[in-house]
Design a protein that fits this description.
Layout (H helix, E strand, L loop, with lengths): L11 E3 L5 E3 L3 H19 L5 H21 L15 H17 L13 H26 L4 H24 L10
Antiparallel strand pairs: 1-2
Helix pairs in contact: 1-2, 1-4, 2-5, 3-5, 4-5
Main location: cytoplasm
InterPro entries: CblAdoTrfase-like (IPR016030), CblAdoTrfase-like_sf (IPR036451), PduO-typ (IPR029499)
Keywords: ATP-binding, Cytoplasm, Nucleotide-binding, Transferase
Length: 179
């Protein structure tokens, strides 16, 4: 099978139900940004910390589910379609709580910097926020799983927490912005 088909040469692409839409469609923007986030997380692994790496691997799989949901304009028609559930959101919350036990309490804003891995996680957090904005935009015009938006919101908090944790473990001091 060839990787290229030429079907997108006119600026359109297929959704999961094989309907054709513009590559600038909000649905494509949403799952394309989630794809970008997933690829960015892939640049962080391995972090050198097994617990963080396992969580990031799980997140990458969750993000594939989010992408599949956003690519499916009629999720009710496909009972076997992957779906983000409450348990996915709760898993990220539990990870954040676990990390917070190891971290010093956050008392102010911090600059998104640190070790290479920590800075990449901060970058991933910023891309996750953009993915969330794209998902909210999509949800304003089309019906989507609200839990996918909630997952992205919680994931951005998780990535921020992972960045802090990796930086702390790497011996990096958090920097506060100067106003």
């Amino acid at each position: 099978m060839s990787i290229y088909t030429g079907r997108g040469d006119d600026g359109d692409t297929d959704l999961r139900d094989m309907s054709r839409v513009s590559k600038t469609d909000p649905r494509i923007e949403a799952y394309g940004t989630v794809d970008e986030l997933n690829a960015l997380i892939g640049t962080v692994r391995p972090t050198g910390y097994d617990d963080v790496d396992e969580r990031l691997r799980t997140i990458q799989n969750h993000l594939h589910v989010v992408q599949a949901e956003f690519a499916n304009p009629d999720s009710d028609a496909d009972e076997d379609a992957p779906t983000i559930e409450t348990e996915h959101v709760e898993t990220v919350e539990a990870w954040i709580d676990d990390c917070d036990e190891e971290l010093e309490p956050l008392t102010s804003f911090i600059l998104p910097t640190g070790s290479e891995r920590g800075a990449r996680l901060h970058h991933a957090r910023a891309v996750c926020r953009r993915a969330e904005r794209r998902a909210v935009d999509l949800a304003e015009n089309e019906e989507i799983n609200e839990l996918a938006v909630q997952y992205l919101n919680r994931l951005s908090d998780g990535l921020f927490t992972f960045a802090r944790l990796v930086n702390q473990r790497d011996g990096e001091t958090e920097e506060q912005p100067q106003y």
